[in-house]
């Protein structure tokens, strides 16, 4: 190895050294030990006699020093100038000058996360911690853990790792995701029962999920253990939290300001005047549109304004990015996905969005509207007209032309701000960059030639790694597309010139990779870029070129467990034009579709395995490209690919995103070959979509298209046509038909060894018996379901089975049922399975409403109301309203209970307070009744929480 090629050294697991081409051969145990000792020393000189003792022990052979020098020489050849190993009397030292050490990267991530948490940016803290913890491949310095030189370092890194896991749990709780934190905290507490910090975090997380008794139990167990082992009481933080839980401190139930605004990867430079003026405009009217050419900084300005103004909106600030949508396509699904809501029965997706926003006060940022201008303008107009608490901040290259719109053209950066941005981005490329009299004029010239456009300035600043400001200025002066304001939109010419110039400076392989990445709608990880853009190259070569494109600001990288790469929309449009000119578009699109069909099928299988959480995170990250792949396949008549993708995604989309993919299935059924192996699953997906919309006749008609054909093993749990027919029967009161179907299907799954299918069908057998008011008959099925689910290690299966068992036990053994429901909720939430999370939350809350603390139950029921409001399941919401009415009766809130009783009767729903009288009216607009009932229920539950509760409530 020669030169200063990048070297990565990993000690968070077995010792490993690699460069851009893969792992490097360090040698046997002795040279590996030598390297480990030098790494632990962190650049300090280690005496030769200490190195000899570490390598050979107490009895080194004759000639050990000579052998040591030979090993040093070998390591120098491996590490090269990236990590020079130098002789410094009385021994040697190792400097990681152009190399990275995973342990150092981990520590930096933890420091960054703790700084972000201290500043209240818990989203950024969580991202840093996830990225840092993903670096661990096993125990630190695993092969040297018992060596004297490594013991202290191993202990330090292990302790830091434990602290990072606890930090991550704290971040989840702060972000309102306590249910996800509970399982990890329980593991930490079991592993370190006397460590107070995770115990305190677990108390808080359990309380935040409505489990007051369990939170208090953590404290009592900690107190008993500390008394037995150390003879001490828990420290002040644990005692204070215990007291606050006992008195139901409202601050513990407080949730962070909702929203999904991204954290800035770099500081926001300048534009203070524009920020203030846009903030004022947002206070003056319901719609502000930032306009300007691509690269003018509209999106960054919008996010900055939203971040500064979100505290004004009780329901938060939400960013909906439209750039990934195909030209001219509807925007309702993208907006609903950004808001985290799903289509409601009987409503279109656009109507669902309006219904959800109608009673809320939030800031909605709609970014990159220009290529979907008509549908975006239509939806925004409806929001402005019908949602008085919502303010919309849009970005577009042209106005939306909606009544009430305030249009704010985004001007170029003034010279001082342009220079400040250039310096910031130049220092990101070259940390020692300085603005001095010798460079200031050149930087000013660059910014002026680029008309103060932020994207152009960033592209030019990225060249500071290899060029001086003067050289860049001269090259821009010579660029043929720069004409000092020729044409109708001179600033757009300047940007095109900057992009063109940056593109021409790339090598041909880099150009090919850049333009190929324009095929991705929402970005891609390294594996996708390699497989789609340049499969003939090695993955390491693709990574090397990607790194250079990132360095040149041509590609953005977003860190996480898997780094993702994307083009800004302006650069993506340029790349698409270059791809068309090169005649590469068709092959790229074909590979893009093929890759994502394969990914969807692998994810569909993975979501039914033990790694469901990882697969859900990965697949949700590429949802924009799954949509793009389907659109391309359908447009090209590639029916095999389109059908396979539709059959693969229900497990991902229905349970975690929304109902958009069901429209894909419905689109395909009239045109594909019914003999295709994936056809029954596509039928099941389309039928399930009709079921979710409450269109039972269509659900039945669609399901029957499959005839007697059954989807193959591994098909998404919700895409079996026969199950849809059984569910319609069950909902309409025909329990016998549903029970017969699921009993037969359980027998078939058992015979075929299909464990996931067996869990699902046994779950429904238990549910059928519970609905039939004979839950004891479902006990055997529920118990078998749990046994099988545990063997699968699949979180959704484990959640379903616990729910089923809790359902059949909740009257006979409510304490055990509560434990099962709570764990079912945690398992589902951890894999973002919102529907199963919701039903587990609801049954736990309902059980507490009968048997537990009314205040805790009230908080839990309120959380369920909010959950079904987002998920859009009116059937479950009405059931939850019945549970609320029961609690109100229990606490003697008779007036509130009577109002809710009236709403239930008006909607034609059963009420726990008795059947309707002969003259009870049924209101035609059931959705309006539901909205009013939910609003009243939440207010009534708030009064229960505020207390005081009447003494006769029990």
TrEMBL record:
<comment type="similarity">
    <text>Belongs to the AfsR/DnrI/RedD regulatory family.</text>
</comment>
<dbReference type="GO" id="GO:0003677">
    <property type="term" value="F:DNA binding"/>
</dbReference>
<dbReference type="InterPro" id="IPR001867">
    <property type="entry name" value="OmpR/PhoB-type_DNA-bd"/>
</dbReference>
<feature type="domain" description="OmpR/PhoB-type">
    <location>
        <begin position="1"/>
        <end position="96"/>
    </location>
</feature>
<feature type="DNA-binding region" description="OmpR/PhoB-type">
    <location>
        <begin position="1"/>
        <end position="96"/>
    </location>
</feature>
<dbReference type="GO" id="GO:0006355">
    <property type="term" value="P:regulation of DNA-templated transcription"/>
</dbReference>
<keyword id="KW-0238">DNA-binding</keyword>
<dbReference type="InterPro" id="IPR036388">
    <property type="entry name" value="WH-like_DNA-bd_sf"/>
</dbReference>
<dbReference type="Pfam" id="PF20703">
    <property type="entry name" value="nSTAND1"/>
</dbReference>
<dbReference type="Pfam" id="PF00486">
    <property type="entry name" value="Trans_reg_C"/>
</dbReference>
<protein>
    <submittedName>
        <fullName>Predicted ATPase</fullName>
    </submittedName>
</protein>
<dbReference type="InterPro" id="IPR005158">
    <property type="entry name" value="BTAD"/>
</dbReference>
<dbReference type="GO" id="GO:0000160">
    <property type="term" value="P:phosphorelay signal transduction system"/>
</dbReference>
<dbReference type="InterPro" id="IPR011990">
    <property type="entry name" value="TPR-like_helical_dom_sf"/>
</dbReference>
<dbReference type="InterPro" id="IPR058852">
    <property type="entry name" value="HTH_77"/>
</dbReference>
<dbReference type="InterPro" id="IPR027417">
    <property type="entry name" value="P-loop_NTPase"/>
</dbReference>
<dbReference type="Pfam" id="PF25872">
    <property type="entry name" value="HTH_77"/>
</dbReference>
<dbReference type="Pfam" id="PF03704">
    <property type="entry name" value="BTAD"/>
</dbReference>
<dbReference type="InterPro" id="IPR016032">
    <property type="entry name" value="Sig_transdc_resp-reg_C-effctor"/>
</dbReference>
<dbReference type="InterPro" id="IPR049052">
    <property type="entry name" value="nSTAND1"/>
</dbReference>
């Amino acid at each position: 190895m020669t030169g200063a090629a990048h070297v990565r050294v990993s000690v968070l697991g077995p010792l490993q050294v690699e460069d851009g081409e893969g792992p490097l051969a360090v040698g046997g145990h002795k040279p590996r030990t030598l390297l480990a000792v030098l790494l632990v020393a962190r650049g300090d000189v280690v005496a030769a006699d200490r190195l000899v003792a570490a390598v050979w022990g107490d009895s080194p052979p004759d000639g050990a020093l000579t052998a040591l020098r030979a090993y040093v020489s070998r390591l120098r050849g491996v590490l090269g100038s990236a990590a020079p190993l130098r002789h410094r009397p009385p021994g040697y030292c190792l400097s990681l000058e152009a190399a990275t050490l995973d342990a150092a990267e981990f520590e930096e991530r933890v420091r960054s996360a703790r700084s972000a948490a201290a500043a209240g940016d818990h989203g950024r803290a969580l991202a840093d911690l996830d990225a840092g913890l993903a670096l661990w491949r096993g125990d630190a310095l695993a092969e040297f853990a018992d060596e004297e030189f490594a013991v202290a370092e191993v202990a330090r890194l292990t302790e830091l790792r434990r602290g990072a896991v606890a930090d991550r749990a704290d971040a989840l709780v702060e972000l309102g995701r306590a249910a996800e934190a509970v399982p990890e905290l329980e593991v930490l507490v079991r592993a370190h029962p006397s460590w107070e910090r995770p115990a305190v975090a677990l108390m808080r997380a359990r309380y935040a999920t409505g489990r007051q008794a369990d939170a208090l139990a953590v404290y009592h167990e900690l107190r008993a253990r500390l008394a037995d082992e150390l003879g001490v009481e828990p420290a002040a933080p644990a005692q204070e939290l215990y007291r606050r839980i006992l008195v139901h401190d409202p601050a513990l139930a407080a949730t962070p300001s909702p929203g999904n605004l991204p954290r800035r990867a770099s500081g926001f430079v300048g534009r203070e005047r524009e920020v203030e003026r846009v903030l004022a405009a947002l206070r003056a009217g319901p719609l502000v549109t930032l306009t300007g050419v691509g690269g003018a900084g509209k999106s960054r300005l919008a996010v900055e304004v939203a971040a500064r103004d979100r505290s004004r909106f009780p329901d938060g600030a939400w960013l909906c990015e439209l750039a990934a949508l195909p030209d001219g396509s509807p925007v309702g699904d993208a907006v609903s996905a950004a808001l985290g809501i799903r289509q409601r029965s009987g409503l279109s997706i656009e109507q669902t969005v309006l219904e959800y926003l109608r009673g809320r006060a939030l800031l909605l940022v709609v970014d990159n509207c220009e290529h979907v201008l008509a549908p975006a303008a239509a939806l925004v107009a409806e929001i402005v007209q019908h949602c008085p608490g919502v303010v919309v901040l849009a970005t577009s290259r042209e106005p939306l032309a909606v009544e009430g719109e305030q249009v704010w053209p985004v001007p170029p950066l003034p010279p001082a701000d342009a220079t400040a941005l250039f310096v910031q981005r130049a220092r990101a490329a070259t940390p020692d960059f300085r603005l001095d009299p010798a460079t200031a004029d050149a930087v000013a010239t660059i910014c002026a030639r680029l008309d103060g456009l932020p994207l152009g300035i960033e592209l030019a600043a990225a060249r500071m790694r290899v060029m001086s400001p003067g050289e860049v200025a001269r090259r821009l002066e010579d660029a043929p597309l720069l004409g000092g304001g020729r044409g109708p939109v001179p600033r757009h010419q300047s940007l095109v010139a900057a992009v063109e110039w940056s593109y021409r400076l790339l090598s041909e392989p880099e150009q090919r990779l850049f333009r190929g990445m324009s095929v991705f709608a929402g970005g891609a990880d390294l594996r996708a870029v390699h497989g789609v853009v340049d499969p003939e190259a090695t993955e390491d070569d693709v990574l090397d070129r990607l790194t250079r494109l990132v360095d040149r600001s041509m590609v953005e990288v977003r860190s996480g467990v898997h780094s993702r790469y994307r083009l800004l929309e302006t650069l993506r449009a340029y790349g698409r034009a270059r791809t068309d000119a090169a005649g590469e578009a068709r092959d790229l699109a074909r590979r893009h579709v093929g890759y994502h069909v394969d990914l969807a099928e692998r994810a569909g299988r993975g979501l039914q395995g033990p790694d469901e959480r990882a697969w859900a995170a990965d697949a949700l990250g590429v949802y924009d490209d799954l949509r793009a792949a389907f659109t391309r396949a359908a447009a090209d008549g590639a029916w095999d690919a389109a059908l396979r993708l539709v059959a693969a995604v229900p497990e991902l989309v229905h349970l975690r995103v929304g109902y958009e993919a069901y429209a894909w299935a419905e689109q395909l059924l009239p045109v594909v070959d019914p003999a295709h192996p994936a056809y029954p699953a596509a039928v099941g997906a389309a039928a399930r979509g009709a079921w979710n919309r409450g269109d039972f006749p269509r659900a039945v008609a669609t399901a029957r298209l499959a005839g007697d054909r059954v989807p193959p093993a591994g098909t998404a749990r919700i895409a079996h046509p026969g199950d849809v027919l059984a569910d319609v029967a069950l909902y309409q009161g025909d329990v016998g038909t549903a029970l017969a179907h699921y009993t037969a299907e359980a027998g078939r799954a058992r015979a075929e060894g299909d464990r996931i299918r067996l869990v699902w069908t046994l779950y429904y057998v238990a549910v059928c018996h519970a609905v039939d008011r004979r839950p004891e008959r479902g006990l055997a099925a529920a118990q078998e379901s749990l046994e099988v689910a545990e063997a699968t290690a699949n979180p959704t299966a484990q959640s379903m089975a616990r729910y089923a068992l809790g359902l059949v036990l909740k009257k006979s053994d409510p304490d055990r049922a509560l434990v099962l429901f709570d764990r079912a909720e945690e398992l589902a939430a951890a894999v973002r399975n919102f529907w199963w999370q919701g039903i587990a939350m609801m049954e736990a809350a309902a059980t507490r409403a009968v048997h537990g603390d009314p205040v805790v139950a009230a908080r839990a029921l309120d959380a369920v109301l909010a959950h079904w409001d987002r998920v859009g399941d009116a059937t479950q919401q009405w059931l939850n309203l019945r549970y609320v009415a029961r609690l109100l009766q229990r606490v003697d809130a008779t007036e509130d209970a009577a109002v809710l009783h009236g709403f239930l009767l008006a909607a034609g729903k059963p009420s726990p307070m008795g059947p309707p009288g002969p003259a009870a009216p049924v209101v035609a607009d059931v959705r309006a009744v539901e909205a009013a009932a939910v609003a009243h229920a939440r207010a009534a539950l708030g009064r229960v929480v505020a207390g005081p509760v009447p003494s006769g409530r029990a």
